[in-house]
Design goal:
Layout lengths: L12 H19 L3 E7 L2 H10 L11 E5 L14 H7 L8 E5 L5 H7 L9 E4 L2 E5 L5 E4 L3 E10 L8 H19 L8 E3 L3 E4 L2 E13 L2 E11 L9 H8 L8 H22 L2 H10 L6 E8 L2 E12 L5 E5 L3 E8 L2 E11 L1
Parallel strand pairs: 1-2, 3-4
Antiparallel strand pairs: 1-3, 4-7, 5-6, 7-11, 8-9, 9-10, 10-11, 12-13, 13-14, 14-15, 15-16
Helix pairs in contact: 3-7, 5-7, 5-8
Length: 352
């Protein structure tokens, strides 16, 4: 999910070595100092929860953590710092985001919420200005500097059949949140798009990603949703504010705390609708936002023990959340990701 230096592969080896050495040294030196976490709540009830959790949360053994309360927070020292008060002022949810764990730097926000899931209220979120051991797909680890919005939050579901669709709800909520903020501030639309299944793209470059993990306990799925979004880092690829400066005649920028509040306001509405009526009411909006309608992709089939490449056209999503495609022979099929390719996993009944 936390991608922000993958783009270095496009640059010369000497540049990659210097940049990665600098980042590695920076993150390593920072990881030696004690890590501060601030427990914050929107209302009196959430602040009381913070007082209780101050002595109950667990952390990785390899690092030292100092837990503090919201009253001990100081004003942000940089323009890229997360503003807790501004976030709560913009938040209008009844569940999500109301209990916040904020840190100027963390190994991984996802690890914090996953390790403490049973202690945290549902909808609790952990945010870090800097992250040096972020989690991604296939056990990838990402180093994310200041300027990135990095957060993980908790939710619970009972129907395991629809759990895989949560990442689509989250990605849609984030793109719609960015649209709303641009509209409310009189800014041009950025056009952030969803690349299935869990990436966000801007002007052809990746600017964000989503990782969902779950465990099953007491007849419920405990889900940790992690999101990374490049808001302010112009290099080595692009970010939201760099694109805004390119297309807007005025000097403007989006802030991480505003984006997060807008995200939760949108996500809570989408998630409640999803639980009551399924993904269908959101499907058309999702298709308007993703990159794949009518896209021609190559898949690898097996013919008499030999790999054979075929081309199919993406139509949408299946009920299980995979890609629905149609072959040139009119046969409908379900596509599953297989590394950087697709494979035809199940033939569906009927033809187009």
């Amino acid at each position: 999910m936390y991608l922000f230096f993958r783009g270095l592969s496009k640059y010369p080896t000497k540049f990659k070595f210097k940049a990665c050495f600098f980042l590695s040294s920076l993150m390593e030196s920072q990881s030696e100092a004690p890590i501060q976490l601030f427990l914050c709540g929107k209302s009196y009830a959430e602040k009381e929860i913070a007082k209780t959790l101050q002595f109950q949360l667990q952390f990785p053994n390899s690092s030292q953590f100092l837990l503090r309360l919201q009253s001990q927070l100081q004003k942000p020292t940089t323009t890229t710092s997360f503003r807790v008060d501004s976030f709560f002022n913009s938040l209008s949810t009844s569940r999500f985001g109301r209990f916040l764990i904020w840190s100027p730097r963390l190994p991984s926000t996802h690890d914090i919420v996953s390790m403490n899931f049973s202690e945290l209220p549902v909808g609790a979120v952990c945010v870090a200005d800097l992250q040096f051991k972020g989690r991604g797909r296939s056990a990838n680890v990402w180093e994310s500097p200041p300027g990135c919005l990095m957060f993980s939050f908790t939710l619970q579901m009972e129907d395991g059949r629809i759990v895989p669709l949560v990442q689509y709800i989250a990605s849609l909520a984030l793109t719609e949140a960015i649209k709303d903020l641009c509209f409310e501030n009189g800014l041009p639309q950025l056009g952030v798009k969803i690349k299935w299944p869990n990436d966000l793209f801007l002007n052809g470059l990746k600017v964000g990603g989503i990782l969902c993990t779950s465990t099953y306990k007491s007849k419920k799925f405990n889900i940790s949703v992690g999101i990374g979004l490049n808001v302010d880092n112009k290099q080595p690829t692009t970010c939201l504010n760099a694109r805004l400066q390119q297309i807007a005649s005025m000097s403007c920028q989006l802030r991480k705390d505003d984006i997060l509040a807008s995200f939760f306001n949108k996500f809570e509405n989408f998630f409640d609708l999803f639980l009551s009526k399924g993904f269908k009411p959101l499907e058309e909006l999702y298709y308007q936002t993703w990159l794949h309608s009518g896209q021609r992709v190559t898949i690898q089939d097996n013919c008499e023990g030999q790999p054979v490449d075929n081309v199919v056209t993406i139509q949408g999503l299946t009920s299980s959340g995979y890609l629905l495609a149609i072959g040139d022979d009119g046969q409908m099929c379900e596509l599953h990701p297989d590394g950087n390719r697709f494979r035809r996993y199940v033939y569906l009944h009927g033809r187009a």
